[in-house]
Each structure stands twice: as structure tokens, then as C-alpha cells.
Design goal:
By secondary structure, the chain is of the alpha/beta class. It has twelve helices and 15 strands. It has two domains: about 170 residues, 3-Layer(aba) Sandwich (Rossmann fold), CATH 3.40.50; about 110 residues, Rossmann fold, CATH 3.40.50.
Length: about 325
């Protein structure tokens, strides 16, 4: 009997979301760090984050603090994606770029050879707008003046809200929307998830031809992976919970993950067993049943609605299993 093909066998790089996959707020997600430590023995990996406020070193330090060996090269940020986009547009290194947002943006621009500026500068050829807790009216006004003078406008990410302990706070997308309302137009580019650019930058850094994207949200992680032409794994440790899975029967193909697992221990198991597929191999139990029903519906074999009793029961049973492992 041959050993099953595991995820580490099947993929040559791992591109991982952070919040909801590796940690939740300040707490590590159960099993995730052991699983990633195991992956890191034989495969390159990185975290891809839409957060523009921090430089890679800050994120790496947080991961190390929680027990995962990580350095700056393991972190790909949305401002780094913005810097790649500017270079792709033929903006010369040494060009001046007006910055709205946190220090992570200055870091990414400097690293790519650009000159970040925070004072109004008529020679600025581009504006990079990301989230920062100190962003104020004059930053937005100056960005708007530069854009009206012809500067390229790049937003690091489209997230409209930011969850905090007191509730939702404005995310970068909300501040981009304020400037959009002012100017009557959208940014020239958005680099973070669900756009594919960050995943492409990550795959290139890992030199991975067949990377796997791991995430907890279908609207950003999974959608971005599909747009980048990469296989994706949805893990139930963050935003999408077992009870939400029934809603996936009717989503557009762009939002459909390739694999579905409860937690990252599955990375050491059979890749075929985790696939959302209508086969015997797709696993037993409630999780296997959910995978099978989603696959049948997506393939048009059986048109299920999200209130289909078999699907609702399977999701409920899965939620129960995950509560009582
Ligand atoms: Mg997440």
C-alpha cells in the first residue's frame, strides 16, 4: 500500500492568510503553528496580508512571538504589491511617491527604490494609499491634489471595515471611497486581496509553480487565489464557520475553494481526501458529506439550495463535531 499524497507532496509553496488561519487577534489558532512548522521543513511559505500599516518585520515578529519561526522574507504585504505594480507601470526607481497610511508603505517603497514623500510634492508621480491610524484630512486632500495633477493612484487594499474590540472601524476601502467621492473616479489599481497581484508576487518570491493558497474567507483569500489561477484551501478556523458552508452551494465559481478542512492538521493528510469532490475519497463523516454535496451542486449533478435539508443537516453535524472533537 502506498502512502497517500499529502499537501506537502502536492504543492511546492504555501501562501497563507494570517488572521483566522494562524492567529485570531493575539491568540494562536489551534494546530496551525505546528502544521506550518512541519510544512516549513520541506517547502517555502509566506504570509500574504492586506494590512498596510506594518512593515514585514512587525508581522514576522508577531509570528515568532506566537511560536512560528518567521523572518521578513516570509511576509508579503499589500504595499509591497503596490511597489511591484508601480514598477510594472514603468515608474522609474528613484521616483517620488506620495504616501497616505502607515509605515509599512514607506518601507515597501524604499525597499523597491522609490522615494516616499509625506509632504505635498508636485513631482510625485504616484500616490499609494493604505490604512494608517494617523491618516487625516490633509493627507487625503494632498493625495487628491496629486491625483488631479496626473499622479497614478494605487490603493493597497479594498477592505471597507476593520474589526476592533469596540466594533467595526473604517478600513482602507472606506478612506479610498471618501477620496473616490471627492474625485468622481476609482483608483487606478488596488493591489491587495481579492486582486490576484499579491498572490503572484508571493508565488514568485517562493519560486513556486504550484502553490497552495490557504485562507479563512472566500471573498478575499479564495477569490484572489482563483483569479490568480491557484488552488485554494478553506480552513474553518476564522470567518467562515461550519454553519456558513451551506451558503457556498450557490456562490459564483470565483468564490469556490478547491479543498475544505476543519484545521491545518489536514496538511499532513491526503490531499485527495480534503478535495471538494463527489468521490469516495473525499472523506467520511459530516465534513466529507459537506464536501460531497457542495461538489455535486457545483458540478450541476444535483441542484441544491442553501436550505436543502441534507446540506443543512451535514453542516449542523459538522458544527457539532467541531465543538466536540
Ligand atoms: Mg483571514
Amino acid at each position: 500500500m502506498t502512502a497517500p499524497t499529502t499537501f506537502v507532496d502536492a504543492f511546492d509553496g504555501f501562501i497563507v492568510d494570517a488572521d483566522g488561519v494562524l492567529y485570531r487577534g493575539a491568540a494562536p489558532v489551534p494546530y496551525a503553528f505546528d502544521a506550518m512548522t512541519e510544512v516549513a521543513q520541506s517547502r517555502p511559505w509566506c504570509v500574504v496580508t492586506n494590512n498596510a500599516a506594518n512593515a514585514p518585520g512587525v508581522v514576522a515578529e508577531k509570528l515568532r512571538g506566537l511560536g512560528l519561526a518567521a523572518d521578513d522574507d516570509n511576509i508579503v504585504t499589500s504595499p509591497q504589491g503596490a511597489a511591484v505594480f508601480l514598477a510594472q507601470q514603468g515608474i522609474a526607481a528613484s521616483a517620488r511617491v506620495y504616501v497616505v497610511g502607515g509605515a509599512g508603505i514607506d518601507h515597501a517603497l524604499l525597499e523597491a527604490g522609490f522615494v516616499p514623500v509625506r509632504e505635498p510634492d508636485p513631482s510625485a508621480v504616484a500616490v499609494v494609499q493604505g490604512l494608517g491610524m494617523e491618516v487625516c484630512w490633509s493627507d487625503l486632500a494632498n493625495a487628491g491634489y496629486a491625483i488631479q495633477s496626473g499622479a497614478l493612484w494605487v490603493a493597497t487594499n479594498p477592505d471597507t471595515s476593520l474589526p476592533t474590540e469596540q466594533g467595526l472601524a473604517p478600513g482602507n476601502g472606506a478612506l479610498v471611497a471618501a477620496l473616490s467621492a471627492t474625485l468622481g473616479r476609482q483608483p487606478d489599481a488596488v493591489t491587495g486581496k481579492p486582486e490576484p497581484l499579491l498572490f503572484e508576487v508571493a508565488a514568485q518570491r517562493l519560486a513556486a509553480g504550484t502553490p497552495l493558497v490557504i485562507g479563512d474567507r472566500v471573498d478575499t483569500d479564495i477569490r484572489g487565489a482563483n483569479r490568480a489561477g491557484m488552488e485554494s484551501l478553506l480552513v474553518l478556523t476564522g470567518v467562515v464557520q461550519a454553519r456558513d458552508l451551506a451558503t457556498l452551494v450557490s456562490v459564483d465559481p470565483e468564490f469556490r475553494p478547491t479543498y475544505l478542512v476543519a484545521d491545518l492538521r489536514a496538511l499532513a493528510d491526503s490531499v485527495d481526501g480534503a478535495r471538494i469532490a463527489d468521490t469516495e475519497a473525499s472523506g467520511g463523516g459530516a465534513l466529507g458529506e459537506v464536501r460531497r454535496l457542495l461538489a455535486r451542486s457545483w458540478a450541476g449533478i444535483e441542484q441544491l439550495s442553501e436550505s436543502d435539508p441534507a446540506l443543512v443537516d451535514a453542516c449542523r453535524a459538522l458544527a457539532e463535531d467541531l465543538r466536540h472533537p
